[in-house]
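To close the section, here is one more complete example, presented without commentary so you can practise reading it yourself. The ligand is NAP.
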Amino acid sequence: MSKIIAVVGATGAQGGGLVRSILADPAAGFKVRALTRKAGGEKADALRALGAEVVEADLDDAASLEKAFAGCHGAYCVTNYWEHFKPEKELSQAASMAQAARAAKLEHVVWSTLEDTRKRVPLDDPRMPTLMGKYKVPHFDAKGEADAAFASAGVPTTYLHTSFYWENFIYFGMGPKRGTDGRFSLTLPMGESRLSGIAAEDIGKCAYGIFKQGKKWIGQRVGIAGDHVSGRQMALDMTQALGQSVGYYAVDFDTYRGFGFPGADDLGNMFQYYVEFEREFAAARSLETTRSLNPELLDFKAWLAKYGNLIPLS
Ligand SMILES: NC(=O)c1ccc[n+]([C@@H]2O[C@H](COP(=O)([O-])OP(=O)(O)OC[C@H]3O[C@@H](n4cnc5c(N)ncnc54)[C@H](OP(=O)(O)O)[C@@H]3O)[C@@H](O)[C@H]2O)c1
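Output:
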C-alpha cells in the first residue's frame, strides 16, 4: 500500500517542490495529500491536475490539521513567517502540527526549520539589535525554538535546515538594481563571506529524498544547500549568465537594517549571522549530503542558466 505524505505549504515553494517530486515518481510507493486553506483555488486545481489529493486545512485550526494528517505515513511541516511577521504564530502553528502528527501516529515528519541564532548570539550580545524584545533573527529563532515542540511530542522528526532561496533575486526584491550611474549592482551585506543558497524547488526534492531514505534520518538534523557563493562571485556569475554587467555592493549591516522595508531589520541580522558564522553555517549544509538526497541539485551557475532570465533587470 502506498504511503501518504501530507504536505503543508503544498501550494508554495517548499511544499510544492515536494508534491511535484512525489508525483513524478509514482513507482516509489508514495502518495501525496496536499494541504491548503483554499481547496477551490487555482493553485489547488493545478495540484489536482498533477494527480494530488487536495484537502483543506489551516495551521491556525488544530482540528483541521488532525483530520488532514489522519491515515498518513508522514508529513512535511513548514510555516510561512513572511505572511504575518509573528514568531509566536510560527511557534503555535508548529506546536499544532506536532500535536496533529502525534495524534495521527505519523511515522516520519520533516520539519522545515532554521537555526535559533540566540544560541550563538544571546540577547544581551550588542553585535546586533534585539528585535521584538526576545529575538535576534525572528524568522530563524522561532523555527529553531519550535524544534522542541516536535521532540517533546515524541514525533519521529527530521529537522531540515534550509538555505537562502536564490529565487529571492527574482520574487523578493533582492535582485540587482540599477544605480543612478545606470549600472546594475547586487546589494548584500555579506562582505566577502559566502552565502549558503539553494534553488527553492530543490528543497522539496531533498525532502522527498529524506522520506525515501526514511528511518536513517529520523531524529537527525540535516542542512541543505546547492552552493556556498560570495556576493562578489554571484555578481560575476550573474554578469556572465545575464549578459549584463552586475557589480557587487557590500553594504554594511546597519545600513541594510535601516532600508525600511518590512523585515529589513530581521534580514539585516540574518545576513550578519551568516557572515559571523559563515564557517559553521556552511559546514551544517554539506553539498555532498544535499546531493545524496537530491541528485538533481542545482549549483548557483546551473540555477542561473535555468532561471536567470526571470531576474528582473530594468
Ligand atoms: N525565502 C527564503 O530565502 C527562505 C529560506 C529558508 C526558509 N524560508 C522560510 O520558508 C517559509 C515559507 O515557505 P515557502 O517559501 O515554501 O512559502 P510560500 O511559497 O510563500 O507559500 C506559503 C505556503 O504556506 C501555506 N500556508 C501559509 N499559512 C498557512 C496556514 N495558516 N495554514 C495552511 N497553510 C498555510 C500556503 O498555503 P495556502 O495559501 O494554499 O493555504 C502556501 O502553500 C518561511 O517561513 C521562510 O522563513 C525562506
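Once you have examined the C-alpha cells, check your reading against these statements. The chain is about 40% helix and 20% strand. The pocket of NAP is lined by residues 8-15, 36-38, 43, 58-60, 78-83, 139, 162, 164-165, 168 (CB under 6 Å).
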